[in-house]
Amino acid sequence: MRKFIPGLLIFLQFGTIQSQVGINTTTPSTASVLEVSSSSDGVNFGGFMPPRVTPTERDLIPVTTSDEGLMVYVVNPPNSQMQIWDGSAWQTLFPQNMEFSAIITAWEVEGLSGSGPTVFDASTVNNSVIVGGLTKSPIINPGTANNAWGGVNWHFSGPNLPQDAIDAESYVTFTITPRFGVKVSLTEIETYNIRRSGTGPTTGIWQYSIDGTNFMNINSTLSWGTITDGTGNPQPAIDLSGISDLQNLTSTTTVTFRIVNWGATAAGGSWYINNVNGNDLIIRGNLSQ
Ligand SMILES: [Ca+2]
């Protein structure tokens, strides 16, 4: 039995064993129960529109374990996603395995003694990346602070700052390399806290490199603050999402971050990434395949 409704261009075919429904086609595939054709006349074309919901509306769908396979398009710009219910959670189909604002890597300085090791491995590393630990340049000597990472012997001053401080290797570094098959877009360095002594470096700048040689400034120079006890100086978050070099990174690129410091007034002046509640240096980003 066949029904053809010209106005809706819906074609129904019911067989004794199986049935097919065609939309815009009178010959739906026998392998399908529903075939949606883009065009009925080869002139006018359209697409298939899945149910579109906001995240709030999606959560109002009364899904149970037996609803495995249910699909919706979640409208949530710029993070809209095609999602499927797997019986216990909504999983993203597109962008494929996208994860937004994930913690890419993080360091926890609580528990460090004597200003921490020269190379301080990250406390948290996302499975999508390889991270080279926070590293003090050779000129930086250990400090005495506990629950903090950094040291003493920072560059004093110069007529061509920060280049003089860079030439003197008055910096700390770390690296992030995406694993094969993953795209990483770095989005933010979360708020952090800098502790310095009265003769420690007053000023610094964040930089990045995607070739390990040529570094670009991230924002302008930062004043580390005047608080010299363990309370430290809160620093604002740094937005990385507008830096095109740091978006859609693949395994062929290692990003090197560098904090360059200067303005110390004594060799014993200290500078540390300071302990706060929770992780003390956090890099966030978006992940996809
Ligand atoms: Ca902490």
Please describe what this structure looks like.
- The longest helix is centred in the first third of the chain and has 5 residues, at 55-59.
- Helices cover 3% and strands 42% of the residues.
- It has a six-stranded antiparallel beta sheet with strand order 10-12-14-21-17-18, with no helix packed on it. The chain has a five-stranded antiparallel beta sheet with strand order 11-9-23-15-20, with no helix packed on it.
- The chain folds into three domains: 2-36, no CATH class; 52-94, no CATH class; 100-288, Sandwich (Jelly Rolls), CATH 2.60.120.
- The protein is mainly β and 289 residues long.
- The chain has helices at residues 55-59, 163-167; strands spanning 2-5, 10-14, 19-23, 34-36, 52-53, 71-74, 81-85, 90-94, 99-107, 119-120, 124-125, 129-136, 148-152, 171-178, 183-189, 192-196, 203-209, 216-223, 233-235, 238-239, 255-262, 270-274, 281-288.
- Calcium ion binds next to loops.
Short description:
The chain has 289 residues and is mainly beta. It contains 2 helices and 23 strands. It folds into 3 domains: 2-36, no CATH class; 52-94, no CATH class; 100-288, Jelly Rolls.
